[in-house]
Amino acid sequence: MCGIVGYIGPKEAYPILMKGLHRLEYRGYDSAGVALMDQEIKLYKQKGKVSELEAFVKGKDVKGTVGIAHTRWATHGEPSQINAHPHFSETKTLAIIHNGIIENYSVIREELKRRGYHFSSDTDTEVLVHLIEDIKFNEKVPLEEAVRIALTQVVGAYAIVIMSKLSPNKLIAARKGSPLVVGIGNEEFFIASDATPIVEYTKDVVYLDDEEIAIVERDKELSIIDIRKETKTPYVQKLEMSLSELEKGGYDHFMLKEIFEQPRAIKDSMRGRLNAPLGIVKLGGIIDYEQKLAKAKRILITACGTSWHAGLVGEYLFEDLARIPVEVEYASEFRYRNPVIYEDDVVLVISQSGETADSLAAIDIAKRNGATILGICNVVGSSIPRQTHAGVYTHAGPEIGVASTKAFTAQVTILTLMALRAAQLRNTISTTRFNQLINELDIIPEKIEAILRQNDKIKKIAAKFKDSRNFLYLGRGYNFPVALEGALKLKEISYIHAEGYPAAEMKHGPIALIDKEMPIVFIATRRGMYEKVITNIQEVKARNGVIIAIATKGDKEVAKMVDYLIEIPDADEVLVPLLAVIPLQLLSYYIAVMLKRNVDQPRNLAKSVTVE
Ligand code: G6P
Predict the structure, then answer these.
(1) Minimum CA distance residue for ligand 1 atom 4
(2) d(Cα 70, Cα 33) in Å, to the nearest integer?
C-alpha cells in the first residue's frame, strides 16, 4: 500500500524521488504526488500511475534538493488529484506525506474547523498537517517538537514525512504501525517506506521503531527522539538486498521472474539450516525457543492471504510429523473474536512483507495473553520480526509481484523444517523417516526446475482456458491448501472467479456448478489420498466436467481420465505442496497475460496491506 520517498542532499531531488516511486509501485496505489523545496514548496499530484504524474509535471519547475513523494492507496476519500499526497497545511508552509490511518481524525477535524482551518480533501492526512501547523504557531516550537506534540494527540497508524518552508534544510519523519526506513548516504539522506528506493544509493539504513521521530537535516547527523521526548541512538544496519533483485532481469514480469526464482529461493531458505548428509535441521533464529515450540500444547498459526495458505500446509505438517495440535486463523478474525490463548501456546505469525496490519494486531493480542510468538517473515527489518519473540527469515529475496509465489514456497519450506525439528525434539518421528524427508527436501529445488521446464506446455493449456468465467480447484490432505492457493492466484491476477475446495467437500455444493463450461483443476498426486481423489475425478467426469490434473509423472490412470495433464515429479506427500503449486502459478500467470491484465500490479490489490 501507500509508498513514501524523501530526499535531502546535494543532488536534484526530483529524479531520485520519481525513481523511488517507481520502485514502490509494486505495493499498489491509485494516485501519486511530489513536493519540492526551492524558495517555495512546489507541489504536484495526479490521479493514476506515477507515469501520469511524470507526464503532468513535464516542463514544470522541478528544481530543489529537498523533496518528498508519495503513492497513495485510497482509504479515506476516493482516488483523486485532491486526495493524493502531499498535502499542504493551511498557510502552505508545511507539506506532508502519510501512510496509515488516523482513527480520531473526525474529532480533530471538527476542532480545527472551529479554529478557522479549511479542508480541501477528504483525507485524514490533511487533519494531521493542519494540527501540526496549529501547534507550531500556538506553541512557537521547532518543527520536530510540533510534530511530536501532534503525534501524542492522534490515535491510529502513521508513517509521515514533513517539510517546512521555514526550515528548508530539514525533513521530519515519524512512524507508528507503518514502516519507515532512513538511508544514510554521503552527505545525503533518503527516507522511504521500504528499502527498495534506497538500495541503489546506500546500504546503510536505520529502521525507525514505533513512536520514533527522525530529524534529518543537511550537514548534520541523523537524530532520533521518541514521542515521549527521549533521545534514541540510531542503529545503523547494512541492507542485504541488491539492486538486481529489484529489476526484471529479462523476464516480462516480476511474477514470472519470481516463479522461476523458486529453486534458488528455496535453496536460500534452507541454507545453513538443513544439512541433509549429516541429518541436521538447525533453525538459528528460534534456537532459544525451540523447546517452547516442542513443548507447546497447541500452535496457533495466524496470517493473511497466501501466507494463510502456507499456514494451512503448516497445520498438516505440525500435526502429522510433530503431533502438536494446530489451529490456523485469519489474522483479521483472530484479532477481533476474543480468542482463547494460553501461556503455553505458541503463536506462529507468517507474513511475506512483515507489515500486514491484521497480523501485527494478532501479535499484540497474543502478547497480552502471554503466549510465545514466533514469526516466519521475508522482509528483513520489517515490523513483524521486530514484534515477535523470535523467528525465521525466509530469505526468498524481495518479492515485487503482488501475487505471492516464491514467498509461499519459501514459507512452506521453513514450516517443513520447523515441523521436522519439533518432531525430532518430541520423538514423534523415526530417524529413518526424518532422514528420508530431509534428503527429499534437499533435492526439491531440482524437482521444481523440472516442472519449470514444462512452461510452454502450461502456456498452451492456459490458452485453452483463458476465456472461462469460473474455475474450481480441488485437492485433499496436503494438497487442499494448494487448491486454495491455486484459486487465489488465478483470481488475483486474471480476475476470473475461482474457488478452492477440499475435493470431497465438492459434493456439498460446488458439484451443482459442474458442466462442460467449467474447468476443474485437480491436484491428484500419487501419495496420500490418491484413491479418494480418483473417485472425486470420476464424479466430475460423470457430470461432463472438463478436468486439468496435476498428477505424478508416469501416472497412467489419471492420464486416461482427464482432459489436460501436467505431470510433476514424484515426492513424499509431505513435500508435494512445494511442487504442485508451481504449475498452478504458471497457469494463472499465462491466463492473466493472455487476458492482458496488469500481472504485477493487479487492480485494487496491494502488496503490503498496512491497513486493516
Ligand atoms: C496482500 C498480498 C498477498 C499476501 C497478503 C498477506 O493481500 O497481495 O499476496 O499474501 O497481503 O501479506 P503478507 O505480507 O502478510 O504475507
Answers:
(1) 305
(2) 5
Are the CB atoms for 536 and 474 separated by under 8 Å? yes
Is residue 447 included in any domain, yes or no?
Answer: no
Q: Is the CB of 306 under 6 A from ligand 1?
A: yes
Q: What is the pLDDT of residue 195?
A: 92
**Are residue 371 and residue 392 in the same domain, yes or no?**
yes
Looking from the CA of residue 359, the nearest atom of ligand 1 is 15
Q: Containing domain of residue 173, as a range? A: 3-239
pTM of the model: 0.89
What is the set of active-site residues?
2, 607
Ligand 1 pocket, residue 262 CB under 6 Å: no
Average pLDDT, the chain: 95
- Ligand 1 center to 434 CA (angstroms): 32
Note whether 399 and 520 are same-domain residues: no
Ligand 1 centre and the CA of 41: distance in Å? 36
Residues 272 and 291 in one domain: yes
Say if ligand 1 is within 6 A of residue 302 CB. no
Identify the burial level of 570 via C-beta atoms within 10 angstroms of its C-beta, where 0-12 means exposed, 13-18 middle and 19 or more buried. Answer: middle
> Which residues touch 258 (CB under 8 Å, ≥6 apart)?
265, 399, 400, 401, 405, 406
CATH number at residue 424: 3.40.50.10490
Q: Whose CA is nearest to atom 1 of ligand 1?
A: 607
Total domains in the chain come to 3
- Cα 607 to averaged position of ligand 1 atoms, centre (Å): 6
pLDDT under 50: residue ranges of the chain:
none
Note whether residue 607 is domain-resident: yes
Residues 397, 342: one domain? Answer: yes
Q: Facing residues of 346 across strands?
A: 299, 372
